[in-house]
Amino acid sequence: MDAPVDVTKVRLETPRLLLRPWMDEDLEDFFAYASVDGVGPMAGWRPHENREVSRAVLRRFIDEKKTFALVLKESGHVIGSIGLERLERSEDPAPDRLGREIGYVLGKDHWGRGLMPEAVKAVIEYCFTVWNYDFLTCGHFLRNSRSRRVVEKCGFTFWKEAAYRTQLGTVEQTLLYVRYNPRKREEHHV
Ligand SMILES: CC(C)(COP(=O)(O)OP(=O)(O)OC[C@H]1O[C@@H](n2cnc3c(N)ncnc32)[C@H](O)[C@@H]1OP(=O)(O)O)[C@@H](O)C(=O)NCCC(=O)NCCS
Q1: How many domains, in total, are found in the chain?
Q2: Residue 119 CA: which ligand 1 atom is closest?
Q3: Among 51, 73, 106, 119, whose CB has the most other CB atoms within 10 angstroms?
Q4: Tell me: the pLDDT tens digits for 134-174?
């Protein structure tokens, strides 16, 4: 079942990144990467056509308190996001346990430097040690081999395949993964 989440007071630091809640001032950085072709559609959403779209999504990020902004230390710019999403009923591997689904997006200019695995590992660590989650899930479209590599590098285990209806009106075969909290491992039969 859905674990509680509130990122508003959380700041995480990795060697190259700061993870913090989104702010209204992030609009330009957000629009800059979310409007680029080839980014959103791999996560199931349309590239932002204008700033108003970005502004509305940013408002939701701030209100829902479940999404981190990824700030690249060397530039100070926001270059991506990581969300701790609600679990779809059919995509809950342990309904009597607390968990969430990690979702992530990185600006195209920054792909291939291992930045997302660095960020995702920090979020996993925080969810397991501070929030005491039982598990996290993660999924990627079958054709998204870049995201598959992130999942693999972050220690998730394949769970199942499912069909996912995107905001674009398409249906994508999706691979789902789970990672249980090793500190609570004795409670699971994995
Ligand atoms: C998926 C994503 C987050 C990966 O982040 P990243 O920080 O680039 O991750 P990595 O640097 O570990 O690269 C992952 C793999 O992508 C591939 N890759 C990286 N940069 C690439 C590039 N410019 N062109 C082609 N492939 C590339 C590599 O195969 C790499 O695997 P490797 O380390 O074994 O060589 C990023 O590509 C992205 O945001 N994509 C669009 C949105 C998306 O797919 N979100 C996930 C939805 S499930």
Answers
A1: 1
A2: 7
A3: 119
A4: 999 999 999 999 999 999 999 999 999 999 998 889 999 99
* Domain span holding position 74: 12-133
The backbone region for 82, taken as left when phi is positive above 0, alpha when psi lies in -120 to 50, beta otherwise, is: beta
Residue 169 lies in a domain: no
- Range list of H helices, 65-156: 115-129, 145-153
* Domain-located, residue 102: yes
31 part of a folded domain: yes
- Distance of CA 190 to CAs 93, 125, 149, Å? 12, 19, 22
Average of pLDDT values for 18-25? 98
- Of 92, 86, 88, 103, give the one whose Cα is nearest residue 5: 86
Mutational pocket test of ligand 1: of 36, 78, 111, 175, the residue with most ligand atoms within 8 Å of the beta carbon: 111
Is this prediction's pTM over 0.90? Answer: yes
Q: Which amino acid is at 33?
A: Y
Q: Is residue 90 part of a domain?
A: yes
